Write the structure tokens for this entry.
Amino acid sequence: MVFTLFTPVSPISEDTIAEFGPRVPPGVAQAWGKYGSGFVGDGYFRFVDPGRAAKMLSHHSPIPSDAVVLFTTALADLVVWWNSVFLVVKTRLGEIHPEAIPFDQIVDLMEDIPQRDEVWDWHPFTQVRDRLGEPGFEECFMHVPMLALGGRGDPEAMQTGNLWKHISMMVQFTGRPKVTHILPLPFDLNRGFADEDEEP
């Protein structure tokens, strides 16, 4: 099993899996077939149909055209696979954080709530969710105004809107995000990689 808790929304077609499966890391195509698209854990992360994501991002996309979208978040972030690495695309911050780790470890990071702020910059999701309720599968919480246009990140000023339209607007008004630093992994995860590389 890949996800500890998953709420399905819709299946992902065999044609889509056949098209995108060769372009993603091990485990992803099997998860598409087993789970379809839906909410991961408490709903902050969403496992998406890559064909649908490609169509919705066809104009004003923050990612390379050959990248495959695997996840979105309730704050309009994207987790994509491109050139053998994951790119965590935080368009609201103007940042991209690459990291080369296995698919199941990306999922572990998503489900590890204590790591959410350091790794995923998910503040102020919980405060806004308490006020507005959980956004729908293709909705997100939006900073109003956008952070790059002078927004202060006040949870009380955030609104719910369409995920894809908001991403497009951010790209149009603030430009594509840029690689700033690698994804900050927790110490235990880094230590695990070190142990695996040690000589017996």
Summary: Residues 6-197 form one domain.
